[in-house]
Amino acid sequence: MEIKQYIENSREQFRTALERLVKIPSVSADADGKYPFGKKCGEVLDEFLKICGENGFSVQNYDYYAGSADMYENGEPELGILAHLDVVPVTEKDWSFPPFAVTEQDGFWYGRGVTDDKGPLLAALFAMKAVKECGYRLKKNVRLIAGCSEETGSEKDIEAYCERAKMPPMVFTPDADFPIITTEKGMMRFAFGGDFSCSEIISIKGGTVVNAVPSEVTAVLKGNVVISGEGVCAKYENGVTEIVCKGVSAHASMPEQGENAFTKLLSVLAGSELPENDRKMTDGLLKMFPHGETDGKSLGLACKDDSGATTCVFSIIDFENGKLTCKADMRYPVSLTKAKVTESFGASAEKAGFKMFSAVGNEPHTVDTQGDFVKTLLEVYGGVTGLPAYCKAIGGGTYVHGIEGGVAFGPEFEGEDNRIHGADERAVISSLLTSAEIYAKAIIKLCGGERN
Ligand SMILES: [Zn+2]
After folding, report:
1. CA 317–ligand 1 middle distance (angstroms)
2. CA of 265 to the centre of ligand 1 (A)
3. How many angstroms is it from 408 CA to the middle of ligand 1?
4. Domains of the chain from N-terminus onward
5. pLDDT confidence of residue 8
6. CA–CA dist 149, 146 (Å, integer)
7. What are the start-end ranges of the H helices in 100-220?
8. What is the value of pTM for the model shown?
């Protein structure tokens, strides 16, 4: 039988396996006995390894950090496929379908994890199965690796795997987009601030997460402060003025799509009659982050190359009792390094009157687009779909960030909205099956498959 046909015939088996995984609400949690990411992540790994075993693959459990299924029992794997079994939490009231079940409607499967990343994990497993059952024999072994804590951003599952086993030399993850992601910008998170004895500003608070453009900020000032502007609302009561300033939220990797509420507030305050010592703080912040600027220019870090441009978001502010703590998210192109970005940010902060508290992040990730590995994946993708096959650069980081030579390869096709991390997460059934076909053909090509 041909690969495509085999996978189409496996649809119901695929769905049954998916149901077995989606049923378990595997939100990564604190360690619980022998389970480093909680009982549910342990349970889902056991179930996954059971499915792999039932389908004739040899499995391994890396102390419940991760698990794997090898195509063949012997031989160090040369191709690794890296996916994850943990999911993000759900807000049940926002769902129109039961989140921990698979519901089919109008060509979609609905359920938490069907696209991120349980469905794609199974697409890779069924790809391996198709290769085997269609009579191909590979020269190189394949390992499907399932991590249990991708969503926490800690990479502890991959670290633990690497302490216990080897990462194959060729790795792709079905945990992002098609065609293929070969470049991921570097990312830094900065914390900075200091002590400021303001005469009029009592507090400024805003921002919920470090990786988003803040959409709201609240400042409390002494006395009756008359201030106005679009999206700015001031209310005088009990001797203080509360100013609420609204912007537009956006992901930190695309800040130009939003409007930063903090910098808007700061520029409004800059036009008011604040005393000198209050200005020290507000003007200092505005110096680092002028309103409307998203490319890190004032930090000396504006830079643009093939991997994209620098983006910088001032995302969290907390000022109260004379103490200011701020956070910023920065994505930077491959032409810059972590050291350079950290140094420049620190120097700019100091110049503006702030101390840098911490700088955490990683280097950009980039893979040779002219190498055989990437070329083969592109060829297979183009061959199966007939769509343009090309390499992409993104501002976010995928599961293979930091794994040498690793790329993201699917499963989402351009133009699809599968509501990842949101309510009513879904997968286009035909797309999921097409990705399984792509993965099967990639395995055959990369691993020297020949038909018996
Ligand atoms: Zn994911």
Report:
1. 29
2. 35
3. 11
4. 3-185+366-451 (3.40.630.10), 186-362 (3.30.70.360)
5. 98
6. 10
7. 118-133, 156-164
8. 0.86
Q: How confident is the model at residue 242 (pLDDT cuts 50, 70, 90)?
A: very high
Between CA 376 and CA 368 the distance in angstroms is 12
**Beta strands of 3-107 (E only): which ranges?**
58-62, 66-70, 79-84, 103-105
Question: Does the pLDDT value for residue 153 go beyond 80?
Answer: no
CB atoms within 10 A of CB 377: 27
CA–centroid distance, residue 403 to ligand 1 (Å): 16
Q: Does pLDDT of 427 surpass 80? A: yes
Residue that has been written with the tokens 């592109």 in this structure: 378
Ligand 1 center from residue 211 Cα (angstroms): 16
Q: How far is the CA of 117 from the centre of ligand 1 (A)?
A: 5
Neighbouring residues of the ion ligand 1, judged by CB less than 5 Å: 116-117, 175
Distance 388 CA to ligand 1 centre (A): 24
pLDDT in tens, 115-135: 999 999 999 999 999 999 999
Q: Give the Å distance between the CA of 299 and the centre of ligand 1.
A: 32
Mean pLDDT of the residues in the chain: 96
**Gap from CA of 409 to ligand 1 centroid (Å):** 12
Ligand 1 centre distance from Cα of residue 144 (Å): 15
Looking at this protein, which amino acid is placed at residue 42?
G
Strands annotated E in 116-208: 136-137, 142-147, 170-173, 176-177, 180-184, 186-195, 201-206
pLDDT in tens, 340-371: 999 999 999 999 999 999 999 999 999 999 99
